[in-house]
Design brief:
The chain is 49% helix and 19% strand. The protein has 743 residues and is of the alpha+beta class. The longest helix has 35 residues.
């Protein structure tokens, strides 16, 4: 049999430990080579030769279930905690158990001074134990039998049964009820976290209005022999169809206020488009014909006709959702450490509890069981130790923080492809920038043009020079020609001369053409140096020393003037570099451009170090040198030309808007819009995330240590230990979820 990959949505999990149980159980099946379960998205991916029926059977054998592909996730999500509790049998039993345990809690634990005792109190407590504890005990036994692992559920079952054995009926029931409700609370917070990620999916439109011919038109059947097929009378009409049926190249109409259903190119119409769901931009963006728009963006006041450029399954929002979900499966080193620690921690706690129960009675004649004051017995303290040592809070402390941070980043236009990259980003010491398209706009612009007969700013002679240059350059696709065309439009001289004829590109000498019978040549300073005026030579040389590109113009071998062109620095580049410096991160520029241009850009942006005249392979070598010097280096580029350097760096970061397809596929981090301010934001978010994880781990372990010492010294009770465990789990969960609001 050949290896295949199967994907399942596992339901019924309340915490990360549940996911670990399922993952380990499925991994033990014959034919399973790779098994990974993402607790946050409930997605289980299994590779190997195992058949799906066996995988589903194993999941159900462990006490969980597999959702049907037809199940509507949104309609099944609870609106509040009480609705969540009523949705599942085990949580409903926990609610009933909570009612049954109230009399025992009130008269045996909180108000024992009243002296009101009755056997019925013990009966209701045991009933609460059975109802709330049965699903927990069953899960613990299944994991022990199938996976040969002691889980949290097994620890709680041992503690509750032990409490029954020593006659602490109310505490036994209370332990199970509190633990069951605590697990339900964790499950509910997990559902809310999943909902925040699925909110990305909800913005994707389900239908599209497509221009198609009328088929099998009932109105005109029978006219002029028309029977079926394309109607000859109706022509092309708008049809509302499911977005999955829209084909490449079709024309889609987007009305004012509607969401754009597919990625497309504007054929006609202009509007402003809110594309915050993709790029995180706070303000709507003006869109004109030939501009691209993303699926899920919200159209403004204009009607847009789009040519479909991507199928619904391949749209930017679809790929974004897929990558965000996959990102959560790339576990950070911190999370892998916590998972390994928890695996050793649980059996170690059981061994410690055995020693606590046995050694004091054997060595120091301490009471093993104290029927009068149970807390003085060392068996009771050992059982309470099992309760307080449950690693729920520790296990959940890392993934909830990572999920919150990853979803926050996605909503703000930064795609981080996994917890591993988020953690690495927090440790970056230097950011290396590509120049063209990263620090600069990647679109050259005319900065100055001057005729030999210039009479001052805005003179007719200079405008005439620009118009003549445009007549020759307008047939070229070169970036410099595009800059000239843009400048000619601004000065309204694009139609001053007819388009040149006999246009020829001259290698090393520029471009030539005939305009109104004159032979016009446009070239570099070196190519036309013998024609240039001495005064202009000095100005041109000075401009080139500043990193500008000079274009000299002549007609019939007579010098007419020059233009200077430069790739404009991004407005946000200097601010982004400044913010990186405030974060104590050094900066460098790696570019294939000349040193003069590179130094000019570095001077405008505040870049610390400049490495110019680099070939792609030399960029890789330079990144390796910087890694040796700084240890942790991020490289940011366009995600295509700089791919080798991006792959070599600790973290590769791609500018996304100019080439979103490639950017999302090639880099570890993608800025979904061309906004460098997102880079310091991502680094601050990563540092805040790691700080939150460290705080959560310290809280979960610190609280357990405090309660452990208190129990060993004879203070506290078993049910308070459960309360502390549940409280710690909720505390670290809420602390991690704060990252969804990080600004």
């Amino acid at each position: 049999m050949t290896n295949t990959q199967h994907t399942f949505r596992v339901t019924g999990m309340d915490c990360a430990s549940c996911a670990q149980t399922v993952e380990n159980g499925v991994a033990k099946l014959d034919g399973v080579e790779l098994c990974q379960l993402n607790f946050t998205t409930e997605t289980l991916r299994v590779s190997g030769t195992a058949v799906p029926q066996n995988i589903v059977a194993r999941i159900q054998e462990l006490g969980y279930d597999v959702a049907s592909p037809d199940d509507n996730v949104e309609t099944s999500e609870p609106q509040n905690f009480w609705q969540f509790m009523r949705q599942r049998q085990e949580t409903t039993l926990a609610l009933v158990g909570a009612l049954l345990i109230l009399p025992g809690l009130l008269f045996n634990e909180l108000l024992p001074m009243l002296g009101w005792e009755h056997p019925l109190l013990n009966v209701t407590s045991v009933a609460a134990l059975v109802l709330a504890g049965w699903p927990i005990a069953r899960s613990g036994w299944r994991s022990l039998r199938i996976n040969h692992e002691l889980t949290i559920n097994a620890l709680m079952t041992i503690a509750a049964v032990g409490a029954l054995f020593i006659g602490a009926y109310t505490e036994a029931g209370l332990v199970m009820v509190l633990f069951a409700i605590g697990e339900a609370l964790e499950g509910y917070t997990a559902v809310r976290a999943r909902s925040s990620i699925r909110s990305l999916m909800r913005v994707s439109p389900q239908t599209a209005t497509v221009m198609r011919p009328c088929m099998d038109c009932e109105t005109h059947l029978g006219q002029d022999g028309y029977t079926q097929g394309e109607c000859p009378f109706c022509g092309i009409e708008p049809h509302k169809v499911p977005v999955e049926e829209v084909k490449l190249g079709e024309t889609v109409i987007v009305k004012p206020g509607e969401r754009v259903p597919v990625d497309g190119r504007i054929l006609s119409g202009s509007s402003t488009v809110d594309q915050a769901t993709i790029t995180g931009e706070s303000a709507p963006i003006p869109k004109q014909p030939d501009d691209t728009v993303f699926a899920s963006s919200i159209n403004g006041a204009g009607v847009l006709h789009l040519e479909v450029t991507h199928l619904a399954a391949d749209s930017t929002i679809s790929r974004l959702i897929k990558l965000v979900e996959e990102a959560q499966e790339r576990r950070a080193p911190a999370q892998r450490f916590v998972d390994r620690f928890a695996r050793i921690y649980t059996p170690a706690v059981v061994v410690l509890a055995i020693f606590v129960a046995i050694l004091p009675p054997l060595l120091w004649q301490q009471p093993f069981i104290d029927t009068v004051t149970p807390i003085n017995g060392w068996l009771y303290r050992a059982l309470a130790l099992l309760v307080v040592a449950c690693p729920c809070a520790l296990v959940i402390s890392t993934p909830v923080s990572l999920v919150s941070a990853l979803s926050n980043a996605a909503k703000n236009g930064v795609l981080i492809k996994g917890g591993a990259y988020l953690e690495a980003l927090s440790q970056i010491k230097l950011v290396a920038f590509d120049k063209t398209g990263t620090l600069t706009q990647g679109r050259p612009a005319v900065t100055h043009f001057q005729s030999i007969n210039c009479q001052g700013n805005g003179c007719a002679s200079c405008d005439d020079l620009l118009g003549l240059t445009h007549a020759v350059e307008q047939s070229s696709e070169h970036p410099l020609a595009q800059a000239v065309a843009q400048a000619a439009d601004v000065q309204h001289v694009q139609n001053r001369y007819p388009a040149a004829t006999d246009v020829q590109a001259r290698v090393g000498a520029g471009i030539a053409g005939t305009v109104n019978g004159r032979q016009v040549l446009i070239g570099s300073h070196r190519a036309l140096n013998n024609l240039a005026h001495d005064t202009h030579c000095e100005a041109i040389s000075a401009a080139e020393a500043e990193g500008l590109t000079a274009m000299l113009v002549s007609a019939d071998n007579q010098y007419l003037g020059y233009l200077t062109v430069a790739d404009q620095v991004r407005d946000d580049a200097g601010t982004a570099v400044s913010h990186l410096h405030n974060l104590h991160i050094q900066t460098a520029m790696l570019t294939g451009d000349n040193a003069a241009t590179a130094n000019n850009i570095a001077g405008q942006t505040g870049i610390d170090r400049v490495f110019a005249n680099l070939l792609p392979e030399e960029k890789v070598e330079k990144v390796e040198e910087l890694l040796g010097e700084y240890g942790r280096v991020a490289m940011i580029g366009d995600g295509i030309n700089d791919a080798p350097a991006l792959a070599t760096a600790t973290v590769g970061i791609a500018m996304g808007a100019a080439g979103t397809d490639q950017a999302m596929e090639t880099a570890d981090v993608a800025l979904m819009q061309d906004d460098l301010s997102k880079l310091p934001y991502a680094i601050r978010l990563s540092r805040a995330t790691m700080g939150t994880i460290h705080t959560n781990v310290a809280l979960s372990l610190g609280l357990k240590l405090i309660f452990l010492l208190a129990l060993l010294l004879g203070f506290g009770t078993m049910w308070l230990a459960v309360f502390a465990d549940v409280g710690a789990s909720l505390l670290v969960t809420l602390n991690g979820m704060r990252l969804t609001k990080f600004k």
